[in-house]
């Protein structure tokens, strides 16, 4: 098995993570990821109340006895969710791994650390990752420009971002963005990462709770079938290309305020895409890794395939290339 400082510290078998995804990180998917030996995260804010989150954690525990975590994404909002109550629900439920994202998690860390919880913070730049280490997180997940969702405003792809981050950090680094198979896993490890995070790839599995039409569209899409929206608002998001994201991008070209596009990008409309399979009901997140996804396997089959093929790559092709260089040198 591929063992890293991350697998050892977090008590998992494989250096593969299914990060939090709004409307996607539910019990069936997370439990399947945990049972495969990888690390899955429920998405706290997918649950309408902290009490519902407690129930979803309990439901996940009915499906697996392996480690799993909860994602808590902290974003500025006119009417913010009751973050402290969600945090307390996580603590009271005995969760030992939390993934934070969005704003600096410094206000939440003392509460989580006092409860013996390990924290992974998602970042989109080296400077934010360094800050996260300084405030006390246990690992960072670094998002390259290829990723779904919010890749930041620096436009730095993983091939640069991953080694730049691992050069500066001493805590485990999880590579995120553009990874969907064994080749991405091996490349990330070669770049210095201790594991990989996949969102779009796990969304396109049998246990994923999104509609079958969404999964089939991911398989049909190529790496070119995403749109960058909210660029003019300095809040870039990568989403799947559809009628709505195309309309948003066109409106932005002429200059706009968020209020001009708010009706198009509401979370409720995106939820309809995932739950009803109406691909043009709203915007929905997907990364450039779509171009590497050609099937809808079970989670167990996906993780097993990735690990087996990664080990074969390391022991086979890469080892043979090393032997060839040694032979040529002698």
Automatic annotation (TrEMBL):
GO terms for molecular function: monooxygenase activity. The keyword Flavoprotein applies. Keywords: Flavoprotein, FMN, Monooxygenase, Oxidoreductase. This is Nitronate monooxygenase family protein. InterPro entries: Aldolase_TIM (IPR013785), NMO (IPR004136). The keyword Secreted does not apply. Pfam families: NMO.
């Amino acid at each position: 098995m591929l063992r890293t400082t991350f697998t050892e510290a977090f008590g998992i078998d494989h250096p593969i993570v299914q990060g939090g995804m709004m409307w996607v990180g539910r019990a069936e998917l997370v439990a399947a990821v945990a049972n495969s030996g990888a690390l899955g995260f429920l998405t706290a804010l997918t649950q309408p109340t902290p009490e519902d989150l407690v129930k979803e954690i309990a439901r996940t525990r009915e499906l697996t006895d392996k480690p799993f975590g909860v994602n808590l994404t902290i974003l500025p909002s006119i009417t913010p969710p009751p973050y402290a109550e969600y945090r307390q629900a996580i603590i009271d439920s005995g969760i030992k791994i939390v993934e934070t994202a969005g704003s600096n998690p410094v206000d939440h860390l003392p509460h989580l650390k006092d409860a013996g919880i390990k924290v992974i913070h998602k970042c989109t730049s080296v400077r934010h990752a360094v800050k996260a280490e300084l405030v006390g997180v246990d690992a960072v997940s670094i998002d390259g420009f290829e990723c779904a969702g919010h890749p930041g405003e620096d436009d730095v792809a993983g091939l640069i971002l991953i080694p730049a981050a691992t050069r500066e950090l001493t805590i485990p680094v999880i590579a995120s963005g553009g990874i969907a198979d064994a080749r991405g896993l091996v490349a990330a490890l070669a770049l210095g990462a201790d594991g990989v995070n996949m969102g779009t790839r796990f969304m396109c599995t049998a246990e994923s709770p999104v509609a079958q039409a969404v999964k089939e569209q991911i398989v049909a899409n190529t790496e070119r079938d995403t749109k960058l929206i909210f660029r003019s608002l300095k809040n870039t998001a990568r989403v799947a290309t559809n009628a709505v994201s195309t309309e948003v991008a066109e409106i932005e070209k002429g200059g706009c305020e968020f209020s001009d596009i708010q009706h198009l990008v509401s979370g409720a409309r995106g939820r309809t895409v995932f739950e009803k399979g109406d691909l043009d009901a709203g915007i929905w997140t997907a990364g450039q890794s779509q171009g590497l996804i050609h099937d809808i396997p079970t989670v167990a089959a996906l993780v097993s395939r990735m690990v087996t093929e990664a080990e074969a790559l390391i022991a086979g092709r890469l080892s043979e290339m090393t032997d060839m260089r040694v032979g040529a040198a002698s």
